[in-house]
Specification:
Keywords (chain A): ATP-binding, Nucleotide-binding, Transport
Distance between the termini of chain A: 34 Å
Number of strands of chain A: 8
Family (chain A): Belongs to the ABC transporter superfamily.
Strand order of the largest sheet of chain B: 1-2
Number of helices of chain A: 9
CATH superfamily of chain A: P-loop containing nucleotide triphosphate hydrolases
CATH class of chain A: Alpha Beta
Largest sheet of chain B: 2 strands, antiparallel
Helix content of chain A: 25-40%
Largest sheet of chain A: 5 strands, parallel
Order of helices and strands of chain B: HHHHHHHHHHHHHHHHHHEEHHH
Structural class of chain A: alpha/beta
Organism (chain A): Paractinoplanes ovalisporus
Order of helices and strands of chain A: EEEHEHEHHHHEHEHEH
Strand content of chain A: 15-25%
Strand order of the largest sheet of chain A: 5-6-7-3-8
Number of domains of chain B: 2
Largest interface: A-B, 35 and 40 residues
Radius of gyration of chain B: 26 Å
Oligomer: heterodimer
GO molecular function (chain A): ATP binding
Pfam family, one (chain A): ABC_tran
Strand content of chain B: under 5%
CATH architecture of chain A: 3-Layer(aba) Sandwich
Chain lengths: 215, 497
């Protein structure tokens, strides 16, 4: 796994109908490194992340994640965490129990993994007993990030993780992402916030700079 | 605040809407509706007559009383579940916040539900009287009883309307109605087990019925006036909730997609619950622990399941194959009480990706709790039938347990179905065009009950041999195993079939 970059995208083309969204996109995320893609709405950031997550098939081009094809295999999803899709929640399960469920599915002891500390850190300590649909959109976003960072992974693919977070929350999340990268994890994210991207230890790049032609 | 008259607003909406419709579209819909009812009525009039007025009375006084409790308990619960006062979704969005009279806005809904409640109440009484009353000339008595039944339907509507506007006492009444419904079911089961239950041998005299019905009518008129006077006090959130229910019902009917309704009921249930986080049972596999926690959090549902194990007793005198089919259907329903998490994963695999489990691991773990519930339910139901002599003596409880994997596979298969595929080609039949999408959707789940054919045969014959028991156990376990390996994989996370 170490021999290959975490993500390697080459000559990616994606269009919706006759409208090209990604044209000749090439990008490399090294293992233990972070890349943050910025750009205006509708430029194709989320589409790029969906393709790298294997949730959307490109029209042309190659995508390699740790040297293999992105796919739907359990091995892929044990290594990769993505927040590209809107989350769903299990009925009748509290926020804390969702975090515990994910930890246990990955063979972690919830106490040792620090479920309570993670919820506290993301400002959800007082909402541990709430069912996620009762939380505000910002709290749900923080819960997703808390769970994503709790479970073991090698690559985080995050779509605008700073959205719906207040200034303090952004600083906390950026610090955690920087710790994740410093600990050997790889990070690919899309963001509108250059300061957040820089604080999270990711190299900032624009969609224009990684596309051969601006669509 | 200036109150805008509602009638001109409604007239304008109606005029504008009808200008967008084709000329005669309403008349055409009415014609098709009436024609459909006439055709179905013509085809099923014998069955309808047998339901409401069989050729001879066939139930005891206990069964008649129990049936009354079941019908009216269910009517009240249905009225509460659907409102009873509701507006269409556009009216809830545009007219509820408008400065119009809230009373006038809600009156048409009250009139419509009043009509429905009175008709259902009257029909319920007609059915009870038809099954229990002696066949003597008694025109006035029948008319008075049916009128009384319709008035009881209206009383229930008025109570439900007051409960909709009220506070916690509405929930207490709901529980009471649930208890009355359960007591009615218990009475029906008891009535079928009694050898010589006393029957109704004479009509109540008109001299008694007339003042009682008159008094109830007077109460209804006064209560109706009071409810209409207090209509404006109905909180907006309750009306909005009922409107969403009505809209979801419409979507369910229009899209032939029952999951819209069941998902809404599930969401509302959990939104009302106050939970306390607990450790998922550490000794169990993680998804089994989650399913078990979810099942234990719905204890009332488990209680209903235990009570429902007595329902096959109602079919003790029916042909054996009907009893066997009812047990298998109950098995499926018992398993489905614990498949909420499978439905979530099948609808959207986001969480399964987060868990990093293969579809095979996930489905294997998800089969356990539905299997145990289905097996226990079938064991209870068959033991009850055995004890009351509807089946010859034998280890019927063991047959129930052996059916557990069948119930688990059928319930999990049902939960993985997903939305109705309305794009499938319709079939032309001599009876008309048949939509295949809802048909295919409806049989997925029940189709796996075919794995219970040995049990079906044993129940139909009323005899259970050790060989038959062994055959059923082997087919159930092997069938569930083949279902698991045939519909899941170690190399994918998605649960869709």
């Amino acid at each position: 796994m170490v021999d290959h970059p975490a993500v390697e995208v080459d000559g990616l083309h994606v269009g919706y109908g006759s409208t090209p969204v990604l044209v000749g996109v090439s990008l490399t995320v090294p293992v233990g490194g972070g890349i943050c893609v910025t750009g205006e709405n509708g430029i194709g950031k989320s589409t790029l992340l969906r393709c790298v997550s294997g949730l959307q098939q490109p029209d042309e081009g190659t995508i390699r994640v740790f040297g293999g094809d992105p796919g739907a295999t359990p091995e892929f999803w044990r290594a990769v965490v993505t927040t590209v899709e809107p989350p769903t929640w299990y009925p009748g399960l509290t926020a804390r129990e969702h975090a515990e469920l994910v930890c246990r599915a990955h063979g972690q002891d919830p106490e040792e993994a620090g479920v309570d500390e993670a919820l506290e850190r993301f400002g959800l300590g007082g909402h541990a007993d709430a069912i996620p649909p009762q939380l505000s959109s910002g709290q749900k976003q923080r819960l997703v990030l808390a769970v994503a960072l709790l479970r073991p992974s090698s690559l985080l693919i995050l779509d605008e993780p700073e959205q719906r977070l207040d200034r303090e929350g952004r600083a906390d999340v950026a610090r955690l992402l920087a710790d994740y990268v410093a600990g050997g994890g790889s990070l690919l994210m899309a963001s509108h916030d250059d300061a957040f991207a820089a604080a999270s230890g990711a190299a900032v790049t624009t969609m224009e700079s990684i596309s051969s032609v601006t669509p | 605040m200036t109150v805008v008259p509602l009638a001109p607003v409604r007239r304008w909406i109606s005029r504008t809407q009808s200008s967008h419709r084709e000329r005669g579209a309403t008349l055409s819909s009415l014609y098709i509706g009436v024609l459909t009812i006439a055709i179905i009525g013509g085809m099923l009039h014998r069955q309808v007559a047998a339901i409401f007025w069989p050729s001879a009375p066939d139930t005891s006084a206990l069964a008649a009383g129990s049936l009354t409790a079941v019908c009216y308990g269910l009517l009240y619960l249905a009225l509460r579940r659907f409102g009873p006062l509701a507006l269409s979704r556009p009216a809830a969005s545009w007219l509820l916040p408008a400065p119009v009279s809230r009373r006038r806005l809600l009156l048409p809904s009250l009139r419509l539900t009043g009509l429905v409640a009175a008709v259902i109440g009257g029909l319920a009484t007609l059915a009870v009287v038809g099954h229990a009353a002696p066949r003597a000339e008694a025109g006035d008595e029948v008319a008075l009883l049916i009128t009384g039944g319709a008035l009881v339907g209206l009383v229930l509507l008025l109570i439900a309307t007051a409960a909709q506007a009220g506070r916690g006492w509405g929930d207490m009444l709901d529980r009471l109605a649930g208890l009355i419904f359960a007591a009615g079911l218990a009475g029906l089961v008891t009535a079928t087990t009694l050898d010589r239950a006393p029957a109704v041998d004479r009509w109540p005299p008109v001299s008694t019925l007339l003042p009682v019905v008159g008094a109830v009518a007077l109460v209804v008129v006064i209560a109706f006036a009071l409810v209409v006077r207090g209509l404006a006090a109905t909180p907006s959130d309750r009306i909005l909730e009922a409107s969403r229910t009505a809209g979801t019902l419409f979507d369910t009917a229009f899209g032939i997609e029952p999951s819209f309704l069941t998902d809404m009921i599930e969401r509302r249930y959990w939104a009302r619950r106050r939970l306390r986080s607990t450790r998922l049972f550490p000794r169990l596999p993680v998804l089994v622990a989650q399913d078990l926690l979810l099942a234990l959090r719905r204890r009332s549902r488990l209680l209903w399941l235990v009570l429902a194990a007595a329902l096959p007793l109602l079919l003790g005198s029916a042909p054996g194959w009907v009893l066997g089919a009812a047990v298998l259907l109950g098995l499926l329903i018992a398993g489905m009480t614990a498949t909420g998490n499978v439905k979530t994963d099948a609808g959207n695999p986001v969480l399964l990706r987060m868990l990093g489990l293969s579809s095979r691991d996930a489905v294997l773990q998800r089969l356990w709790v539905p299997g145990v519930l289905a097996g226990l339910w079938a064991a209870l139901a068959l033991t009850a039938l055995d004890l009351l002599g509807d089946l010859s003596s034998g280890p019927w409880w063991a047959l129930g347990v052996a059916l557990g994997p069948v119930g688990a596979a059928a319930a999990v298969h049902r939960a993985r179905v997903g939305f109705v595929r309305n794009e499938l080609l319709p079939l032309d039949t001599p009876m008309g065009t048949l939509s295949t999408g809802p048909l295919v959707n409806a049989v997925m789940g029940p189709d796996l009950l075919l794995l219970g054919i040995p049990a079906w045969i044993a129940i139909a014959r009323g005899e259970l041999t050790p060989t038959m028991l062994l055959v059923q156990a082997v087919i159930a376990v092997a069938g569930a195993r083949i279902y698991l390996s045939g519909t899941t994989g170690d190399d994918r996370t998605e649960l869709s079939n």
